[in-house]
C-alpha cells in the first residue's frame, strides 16, 4: 500500500484546505444559549458538549423526556461541530497537534472553543456496538482511501508506462534511423569505392590498350615506310624493265625489219637468178 507521498500533489492541497476549514470551525467560540446567558462560565457548557454521546449512540432521557430538576440543559452539538469532530478523529496525531496549535494561537481569548471542549472530553470505554460502528466507518473510509490511492497509483503507473513506452519507441525509431543512415552511408561508400576501383581498372586497361595500339600504329607506320620504299624501288625496277623491254622490242623490230629486208633481197636475188 503506497503512502501519502505517492499521491499526486493536488491531494496535499486538498488536505491543507480541509485543515484550514477545520481550524476555522474549531476556533469559533461556543455559543451560550439565551436561557443560560447569566452564567459566565463556558466550561460547564463545553463539558456538556464534550460529554455528549458519539454519533450513532443513544442519549439517555428521562421518562418524560425532560431535564432532571436542578440539572442544566445540555447544549445541542451543532452538525458542523460533529462533522469537525469526526474529521478530527480521522487525522493523525501530528495533524491533531497542528490543529490544536492553530486553535490555541489566538491571544487574549477568554472563551473556550469547540476544539477545547472536544479535546477536554474524558475518555470513556466504548461499547461493542460503538466499537463495531467506528471500525465499520473506519474500514469504509480506509477502503475508500485505498481504492482512491490504488486508482491514482494505477493511473500514474499507466501514464508512466505510456510515457516510457513512447520514449522507448521514439528512442528505438531514432536508433533505427541512425543505424539505417549509417548502413546506407557505409553501403554507398563501399559502392563508391568499388566504382572508383572499377573506373581505375578500366582507365588502366584503356591506357594499356592505347599504348598497345600506339605501338601497333608505329609499327604499321614503319612497315608502311618500308613498303613505300620497296614500292618505289619496284616501280623504278618496273620502269627500267619497261625501258629495257622497249629497247628490246625496238631491236627486235629492227632485226625483223632487217630479216624481212634480207628475205626480200634473197627473193629478189632468186627471182633475178631464175630470170637470168
From TrEMBL:
Compositional bias per record (Basic and acidic residues), positions renumbered to this chain: 12-22
Keyword Transmembrane helix recorded: yes
Region annotation Disordered: where it falls in the sequence: 1-22, 54-80, 92-112
Keyword Membrane: yes
Membrane-spanning parts: 257-275
Coiled coil: 196-251
Keywords noted in UniProt: Cell projection, Cilium, Coiled coil, Flagellum, Membrane, Transmembrane, Transmembrane helix
Official protein name in the record: Flagellar biosynthesis/type III secretory pathway protein FliH
Amino acid at each position: 500500500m503506497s503512502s501519502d507521498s505517492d499521491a499526486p500533489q493536488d491531494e496535499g492541497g486538498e488536505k491543507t484546505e480541509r485543515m484550514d476549514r477545520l481550524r476555522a470551525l474549531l476556533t469559533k467560540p461556543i455559543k451560550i444559549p439565551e436561557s443560560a446567558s447569566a452564567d459566565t462560565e463556558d466550561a460547564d457548557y463545553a463539558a456538556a458538549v464534550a460529554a455528549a454521546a458519539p454519533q450513532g449512540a443513544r442519549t439517555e432521557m428521562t421518562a418524560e423526556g425532560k431535564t432532571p430538576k436542578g440539572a442544566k440543559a445540555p447544549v445541542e452539538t451543532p452538525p458542523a461541530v460533529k462533522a469537525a469532530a469526526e474529521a478530527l478523529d480521522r487525522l493523525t496525531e501530528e495533524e491533531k497537534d497542528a490543529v490544536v496549535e492553530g486553535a490555541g494561537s489566538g491571544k487574549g481569548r477568554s472563551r473556550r472553543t469547540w476544539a477545547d471542549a472536544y479535546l477536554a472530553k474524558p475518555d470513556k470505554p466504548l461499547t461493542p456496538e460503538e466499537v463495531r460502528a467506528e471500525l465499520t466507518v473506519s474500514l469504509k473510509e480506509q477502503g475508500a482511501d485505498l481504492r482512491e490511492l490504488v486508482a491514482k497509483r494505477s493511473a500514474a503507473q499507466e501514464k508512466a508506462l505510456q510515457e516510457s513506452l513512447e520514449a522507448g519507441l521514439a528512442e528505438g525509431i531514432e536508433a533505427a534511423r541512425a543505424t539505417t543512415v549509417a548502413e546506407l552511408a557505409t553501403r554507398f561508400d563501399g559502392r563508391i569505392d568499388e566504382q572508383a576501383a572499377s573506373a581505375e581498372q578500366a582507365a588502366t586497361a584503356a591506357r594499356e590498350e592505347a599504348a598497345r595500339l600506339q605501338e601497333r600504329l608505329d609499327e604499321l607506320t614503319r612497315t608502311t615506310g618500308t613498303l613505300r620504299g620497296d614500292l618505289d624501288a619496284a616501280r623504278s625496277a618496273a620502269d627500267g624493265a619497261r625501258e629495257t623491254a622497249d629497247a628490246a622490242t625496238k631491236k627486235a623490230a629492227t632485226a625483223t625489219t632487217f630479216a624481212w629486208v634480207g628475205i626480200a633481197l634473197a627473193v629478189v636475188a632468186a627471182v633475178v637468178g631464175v630470170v637470168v
